[in-house]
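Example record

One chain of 503 residues, shown exactly as stored in the release files.
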Amino acid sequence: MKQFGQLLLAAVMGSACTISAYQWLGNENNGVRIEHVAGVPANTVSYNSGGVPASLDFTATAEKVTKAVVHIKSTSENTVSKANPNDPMQFFFNPNTPAQRQPSQSTGSGVIINAEGYIATNNHVVQGAEVVEVTLSDNRTFKAEVIGTDPDTDIALIKIKEKDLAYLSFVNSDESKVGEWVLAVGNPFNLNSTVTAGIISAKGRNINIINSNTNRSNNQGQNENQRNTAIESFIQTDAAINPGNSGGALVNLNGQLLGINTAIASPTGSYSGYGFAVPSNIVSKVVEDLIAYGTVQRGWLGVELLNLTSEFAKQEDLSVNEGAYVNGFGDFADKSAAKVAGIQKGDVIVKIDALAIKSNTTLISYIGLKRPGDKVLVTVNRKGKTIELPITLKNREGKVGTLSREEKDAIASLGMELEELDAKTLKRLELNNGVKVKSLENGKIARYTEMKEGFIITHVNDVEIKSTKELNEFLKKKKAGDLVTFSGIYEDYAREYIYAIRF
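Predicted C-alpha cells for this chain:
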C-alpha cells in the first residue's frame, strides 16, 4: 500500500454485476462492451413470519459481488542506489555508487468490468510491475496485460485472456447519496473476498493524495501551493477497508459499481474510520478512453485556481463566497482555452453548463470527464456581474483534437509521460530546447535507469530534442537491440545526467 505521511494510506474495495444498458467502444480488434445501468433502490430488509422488519440483509449482494472481485499480485525488479541519485555531493565523493537490483511484490484488488476479461484497479497497484498476476474468486490464476494507466486519477486497466466472466456494471455515481448503504469487497491483508458494509459519509472529497509528492503544473485547475494534475472527488465511506483492498470496488446494495476505493484515512496504516473511492463516473471515463484510444483524452480549461473562502472573498472584495477563483493561467497562457474564451484573472467560476460550482473540486472533476473538443458553457462572476462564456476545451498540448494511440506508443512503451516546455521556462533554465518527464510508470526507463520525474531531456543520442513529437518520431525508428541515451538536467541541479537503455 502507498503511505501518505502519517495520515493516509492507499486501500480499496470490491463490486458486482447487473444488466441493463451498455456501451460499445471501438478498438483495433472488436467492440468492447462496458455496461452502464440505472440505479434503483435495493430491498435489503428481511421480514419475520409476522411481516415485521427484522434486519438488514446483505447476503445476496455479497454473493454476487465477490465473483467479480479479483486478487492482484504485482512483481517488479527495482533499481536501488546505495546513495541518493539527486544528491550533488555523491558526484564529488562517490560518483560511481553501484546500483542494486532487487525484486519486490505488492498485492491489491481489482474489479472485472466486462465478460471479456477487462479489470479496473488502481494505478499504484500495478505501477512499475514487470509481471501482474490475477487470481479469480474460484482460485484460477492468469497473467494480466496492463492496457493503460492514469496516474491523475490513480486508475489502471488490465486484461486477462479469459471470457464469460462475472463482471460489474457501472452505475451513475453522481446519483449516490450521503447516508446510502454500500458494500466494500476486496483482499485486505491477502484475505480474499472480504466483504464489509457501511454508508456513504460524504462526496466530492479532495484529500490531496494523488500525485501529492510531485510538483506538476496543472492547466486544468490548480491550487497555488500544490500544483499537480490530480483529479480528486472521492466518495467517502465508513465501510472497513485496509491495506490490500486497493483497486477493488465500492458497490450499492444492488451490486452495482459506485467506485474504486483508493485510500484510507489512518494514523496507523489500518482501518480507523474512513475510506475514499474514485467515483464510478470517473473510472468509467478513464477505462473507456484507455480501451478506445490507448491514452486518456482529457479536456482542459487552462486556468490556475485558488480555493475560495469567506476570508479570501472579503479580502478581494468579491460578491460571492462559493466557486472557483481564477488566479491566472500560469505557464499555459498560450494554450489556455479559458483565456481564449475571455476568462480573466479574478473571475469566480460559479457554474458550468447546468452544474453549480461550489469549489475547485467540483470544477476539476466535472471538466475531467470531458474530452478535447467538448464545448461547455462557463458562468463567471466578475466584480459582481454575471457573464456566460462558451468554451471549447483543449488537450494538454493546447489543441482541440484527441491524442491517438500511435502518437503515444513510442514514448509510452518506455513508461514515460512527457510535457512540453514553454519559452519562458526554457529561458529561466538557460536551455535552448528540451521536454520534461512528467511521470514514470511501468517500463524500461523505470526498471533499468535511475531517471526521476522532473528530468528534462535535452538530447537523445546527441540529437537535440525540441518537442515530444520529435522525440516520439526518433524513438519509433529504433530497432530491438539499439542503444538509446537520454541526456539532460534536473531543474535543481546544474550538472548533466545521462541515462541509457537498450531497445
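Notes: The domain at 3-212+225-292 is CATH 2.40.10.120 (Thrombin, subunit H).
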